[in-house]
């Protein structure tokens, strides 16, 4: 793949890089010769499609002249990053293609491109400009036997990487199918959020000794025409990745607090209300402030509001989590640690956090009464949590045996299908009034 006798018309004026047409010619020639067994040496290559993120935004911020310089710097950077066996071309304004022939495995090419993407720091007139890129990788001959097919797959791989919050994506039929479904789900979710297609169900929490309802947990439901519900276990993680959780959760909190207001007005003012908070919500200050605004706009008994969080946030950003949880507590709101036991936190670690309640994950409760490891752990959690003055709630109680066992080990609060399934608010009202 020599570069010697190629005409200057094949080179990009701004960057001096070869144009993609040149690469197309070189590769087409290469593929033909390879199929005639005339080519000995490299028998596969990767085509990488590189796209600068938010280039329109850069143009608006810095103007076209500076952006031309940015492109030039990036082109220079890419040219220095690739060795003799590789080849960089400019495809269109902010898009480049790299041909890589010297790699040993999928992982190696991934790592190499990751290094290229992460090392791109541009400085224009002493001003550092942060550049991020997305890359899609297609491999010859695995993903196509002609350059246009490969380019198309590399481009889709990069587009889908961006859509799902990743930097790099190697094309694969299976992954592509999954990602396309995910992207469709993201679009469907957006439509659902815009049209407020969601509902809240409420699952009662009981005092296991007196059998009284002490509170309810709000659980989001997404009804589908003639198809029941899509489970929050499916759409919440996707909404977290796409950050749509921010707007969805604002709707959930508003809806739940309105319900709390209605319950208080109708005399049910003792009922505690638990709302699940995504760890994403605690990560973003601007989003967290919007949630504080929503909370401030209600006049309910906040000492009867509980936010349930999981360990993910606590482990990743302890200090921020503590600070924001304290801001919630300043309203009188209580904090529950959900799914306890599934993560890595020990109770002593949790002692340092502003947490009032521990909810033992249902996987532990469901191991009762088989006397295995989980049951021993459940016992230990219960006795330690009591000593440390946490309120403990057992979730996922499904059998009488489990209920009896929990009562016996003095776990005084619990939730589960045995006691009551999550219900829409109107159905729940009848139960609450009994
Ligand atoms: P989670 O917070 O642990 O909620 C408890 C889940 O267990 C609920 O599933 C509930 O319906 C289910 N459940 C209750 N009792 C039993 C039982 O006896 N046995 C079994 N096997 N399951 C029981 P759901 O409603 O499908 O929610 C799944 C997860 O989705 C929740 O787990 C929570 O992580 C998330 N989620 C649900 N609603 C919201 C929400 O409004 N906001 C956020 N951020 N996440 C939510
Ligand atoms: Ca929960
Ligand atoms: Ca849980």
Kindly describe this structure.
It contains 16 helices and 17 strands. With 434 residues, the protein is α/β, with parallel strands linked by helices. The protein folds into two domains: 3-171, Alpha-Beta Plaits; 183-432, TIM Barrel (Alpha-Beta Barrel), CATH 3.20.20.450. The strands form three sheets. It has an eight-stranded mixed beta barrel, surrounded by four helices. Strands 2-3-1-6-7 form a five-stranded mixed sheet, with helices on both faces. Strands 4-5 form a two-stranded antiparallel sheet. The longest helix is centred in the N-terminal third of the chain and has 27 residues, at 55-81. The mean pLDDT is 88. One calcium ion (CA) binds next to strand 13. Residues 217, 276, 308, 338 line the site of one calcium ion.
Give the strand order of the largest sheet, numbering strands 1, 2, ... along the chain.
8-9-11-12-13-14-15-16
Give the strand tally: 17
Distance between the termini: 82 Å
Number of domains: 2
Number of DSSP helices? 16
* Average of per-residue pLDDT values: 88
């Amino acid at each position: 793949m020599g570069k010697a006798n190629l005409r200057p018309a094949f080179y990009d004026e701004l960057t001096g890089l070869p144009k993609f047409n040149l690469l197309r010619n070189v590769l087409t020639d290469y593929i033909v010769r390879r199929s005639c067994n005339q080519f000995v040496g490299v028998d596969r290559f990767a085509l990488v499609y590189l796209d600068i993120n938010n280039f329109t935004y850069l143009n608006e911020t810095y103007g076209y002249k500076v952006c031309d310089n940015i492109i030039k710097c990036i082109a220079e950077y890419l040219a220095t990053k690739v060795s003799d066996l590789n080849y960089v071309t400019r495809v269109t304004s902010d898009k480049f293609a790299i041909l890589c022939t010297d790699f040993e495995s999928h992982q190696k090419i991934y790592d190499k491109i990751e290094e290229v993407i992460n090392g791109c720091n541009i400085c224009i007139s002493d001003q550092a400009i942060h550049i991020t890129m997305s890359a899609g990788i297609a491999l010859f001959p695995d993903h196509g036997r002609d350059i246009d097919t490969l380019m198309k797959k590399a481009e889709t791989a990069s587009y889908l990487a961006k859509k799902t919050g990743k930097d790099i994506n190697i094309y694969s039929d299976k992954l592509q199918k999954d990602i396309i479904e995910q992207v469709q789900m993201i679009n469907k979710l957006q439509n659902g959020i815009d049209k407020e297609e969601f509902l809240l169900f409420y699952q009662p929490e009981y005092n296991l000794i007196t059998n009284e309802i002490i509170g309810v947990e709000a659980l989001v439901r997404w009804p589908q025409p003639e198809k029941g519900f899509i489970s929050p276990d499916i759409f919440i993680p996707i909404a977290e990745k796409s950050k749509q959780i921010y707007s969805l959760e604002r709707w959930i909190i508003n809806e739940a607090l309105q319900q709390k207001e209605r319950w208080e007005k109708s005399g049910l003012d003792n009922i505690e209300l638990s709302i699940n908070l995504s760890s994403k919500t605690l990560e973003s200050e601007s989003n967290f402030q919007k949630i504080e605004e929503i909370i401030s706009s209600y006049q309910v008994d906040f000492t009867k509001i509980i936010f349930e969080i999981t360990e993910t946030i606590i482990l990743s950003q302890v200090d921020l989590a503590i600070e924001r949880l304290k801001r919630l507590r300043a309203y009188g709101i209580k904090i529950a640690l959900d799914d306890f036991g599934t993560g890595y936190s020990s109770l002593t670690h949790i002692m340092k956090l502003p947490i009032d309640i521990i909810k033992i994950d249902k996987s532990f409760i469901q191991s009762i009464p088989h006397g295995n490891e989980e049951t021993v752990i459940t016992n230990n959690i219960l006795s330690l949590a009591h000593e440390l003055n946490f309120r403990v709630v057992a979730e996922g109680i499904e059998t009488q045996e489990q209920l009896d066992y929990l009562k016996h080990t003095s776990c005084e609060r619990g939730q589960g299908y045995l006691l009551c399934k999550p219900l829409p608010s109107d159905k729940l009202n009848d139960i609450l009034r009994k």
